[in-house]
UniProtKB/TrEMBL annotation:
Keywords: Signal. Residues 1-27 form the signal peptide. It is found in: Periplasm. Residues 49-244 form the SsuA/THI5-like domain. The keyword Transmembrane helix does not apply. Belongs to the bacterial solute-binding protein SsuA/TauA family. This is ABC transporter substrate-binding protein. It comes from Streptomyces carpinensis.
Length: 327
């Protein structure tokens, strides 16, 4: 599937989803002919660490699955899932909500990061001084954008009070803040350590606010779940082992993390592991309706039909219940 050039943001996700659904109707398959389960993720960020560990430590293989991880941009993950190019996707709640508004049948199976894993850093020393300043974000299809809006709301500002600047990727946002071409941005370790060393100020730890959100969640098509419940069950069992290893083996977890994000500074890796282990990763990655509300609110008015969605129908927690709770 080739996405339409220029189709970006939530509206682009919705448009691409419609195109992908058309391809599916024309015969695209939900399954790989060689038995490979293709799983996408959108960014090389620590949110994905339990998934990476489950794959690289061989936990999916232990469950009898041949899992292939692929990296897709945030606005491509949902269309690829709908068209059958991937069978499972790790992506944000905004992609789920905007895709569902376009008629896509995808369920959230688990929430890797159930809060916004961000810290708002700025070149001013208080949140009150951000009014009228430039605040960078990735794209309106990404969770970082919704996290930015949540941070603004928490400090008493509206989007119209600041100059929001789209920059395309987390790397671009971080580089822009370091070079001071923007005044603030929502980020997280290890990048936040660079900001501290550069003399920037953390004006809000958004993760500590515990605002419900699916920053990264595990999803699959409703039809695939129905046809292959055994695959989903085995996948979730492998993912649980990834979560367990992430918490119990800091040395291995930081090694995997460093390889993925291209970092060899142990202090930064240790701080990132500590931040995600203590503030972000859940004991049980159960998806809830409340975690999708922030995406629905932020997309309201820009994506047709999003306001009328029944968010509870987008969630299937049965596989998490079995793997993590023994139900």
């Amino acid at each position: 599937m080739k996405l339409k050039p220029g189709a970006t943001g939530a509206a682009g996700v919705a448009l691409a989803t419609v195109l992908a659904m058309s391809l599916t109707a024309c015969g695209s398959s939900d399954t790989s002919s060689d038995g490979v389960i293709t799983v996408s993720y959108s960014e090389e960020v620590a949110d994905e660490l339990p998934l990476w560990i489950a794959s690289e430590a061989g936990y999916f293989k232990e469950e009898g699955l041949n899992v292939k991880l692929v990296s897709l941009a945030s606005d491509q993950g949902y269309p690829a899932l709908i068209s059958g190019q991937t069978q499972i996707a790790s992506m944000g709640g905004s992609q789920i909500v905007s895709g569902a508004a376009a008629g896509g049948d995808v369920k959230v199976l688990a929430t890797m990061t159930p809060v916004f894993p961000y810290q708002l850093y700025a070149n001013v020393d208080s949140a009150a001084k951000l009014k009228g300043k430039k605040i960078g974000y990735t794209s309106k299809s990404g969770s970082q954008y919704i996290g930015t809006l949540a941070a603004l709301k928490k400090i008493g500002l509206s989007p119209s009070d600041v100059n929001l600047v789209p920059l395309g990727s987390v790397t671009n946002v971080n580089n822009a803040l370091l070079s001071k071409t923007i005044d603030a941005a929502a980020t997280h370790p290890p990048a936040s350590l660079q900001f501290e060393d550069a003399g920037l100020h953390m004006v809000l730890d958004i993760a500590q606010q515990k605002i419900p959100n699916i920053n990264v969640g595990i999803s699959s098509k409703g039809s695939y779940i129905k046809a292959h419940p055994d695959v989903i069950e085995k996948f979730m069992a492998g993912l649980k082992k990834g979560f367990d290893r992430e918490r119990s083996d800091q040395k291995y977890a930081t090694k995997v993390l460093g390889a993925h994000i291209g970092l060899d500074k142990q202090r930064a890796l240790d701080e990132t592991w500590k931040y995600y282990s203590t503030e972000v990763f859940p004991a049980v990655p159960e998806a809830t309706k409340a975690q999708l509300v922030s995406a629905q609110e932020s997309l309201g008015g820009s994506v047709h039909g999003v306001d009328k969605l029944d968010l509870s129908k987008l969630i299937d927690s049965s596989f998490v219940d079995k793997a993590f709770k023994g139900k």
